[in-house]
Amino acid sequence: MKSDGDEDAIIRAIEHALDQNNPNRAMRLLNVVQEAESRDVTLWIRVAYSALNSEQFQQALEAAHKAVSIDPMSANAHTVLGHCFEELGLMEQAENAFTRGIELSPSDPRYVFLGVSKRRLGKDDEAEIAFRSALWRNGKNEEAAFNLAVCLREKSPDEAMSLLKQAVHIAPDYADAYREMSFILGRSGQYAEAILCARNAIRHNPEDAWSWVYIAAALAEIQEHDEAERAYLKAIELDPTEPAFCFLLGNYYRHLCIIDKAVRAYQSAIDLDPENLKYKSSIAIVTQEQHRGDKALDGDAS
Fold first, then answer.
1. What is the number of other CB atoms lying within 10 angstroms of the CB of residue 55?
2. What is the C-alpha separation between 47 and 34, in angstroms, rounded?
């Protein structure tokens, strides 16, 4: 490439190709950029993000490393490097890259990125500190409020609920926040409110399977069994690879003493996760219950 204008034009062409769902053209253009010897750190950051958007994670990582090598003091370069590591499942490296970005230029989004990486590493206390730091910098960051609420929903559900309300006040279409509100309300026995929040979550994002699970659980508690069953089945339809949904459906059928359906649901969970002892134990118990019921019927018949 001969000039900054040429580079900018190619980046715009990459972004246009991605918008037009043409990843092959985007990849060809990415290769053109990566073969160039540009020393423009902003260019390489943009290339990295474009590659991330086209799910070309290795190329994104190479571009991000290039950006960091050109300007080791660029917080943006370290941040995009963190995102590349995150997409590749290299969470410790992502955590280090986000930390470096904060050291160079702290901001509320960077604290959110760091908090997410720490939570995925199981460092919940450190994640909480990161999310609180983001909110301290910007009290209107709905992502910080939401992620902090997720950290707190077990140990401090009241604070978590307050944070989720804050998140949906900032972003009224925040489906994930409504979903988590439904979870907390359902756990506290407020089933009508849980159903309302789950419906809001589904209205804003009907493809989120967990929202259907949460509404199913709340509907079951108020004896709306047909609708509850449909909601569980919808969750499985949306994500047929998640064994927990089949397991929860099995629990639902077992509670209603529909043993044959419970057995089939538990077996589906085991098929998806053969090493899960909880699933195996559940199907063993419900099968024994089925056998005892069959024997009782035989005894009555005789």
1. 10
2. 8
